[in-house]
Amino acid sequence: MTILADGGIVVIWVVGIMVLGLFGFLAAVLGMLVRLAKFLLRPFWPEENPTTAGPKASPGGRVCPNPRCRHTNSVAARYCARCGQAMTEQV
After folding, report:
1. Residues ≥6 apart with Cβ < 8 Å to 55
2. Residue 67 to residue 70: CA distance in whole angstroms
3. How far apart are CA 36 and CA 42, in angstroms?
4. What is the reported pLDDT for 47?
5. Domain extent listing, the chain
6. pLDDT, tens only, 11-52
């Protein structure tokens, strides 16, 4: 008496695992192609870089003085919610 009476179930498992692997591979390739397209098409649709843009006057908050952060915080915030820098620059 054998443990596996029918080898068909093994074939079904192997094929199922291969199909799932193929879908995972195709999803990874699709993600890579999307990132490559964004990289190649970036010069045609320039976006404003938040690190080089000056602080914008926001009606609902204060902009962090840290040039790398520029997070918009609430008006009453004493420290930036993203980087933790004091909202008033100390000279």
Report:
1. 63, 65, 70
2. 6
3. 10
4. 61
5. 8-44, 50-91
6. 777 888 899 899 999 999 999 999 999 888 887 876 655 554
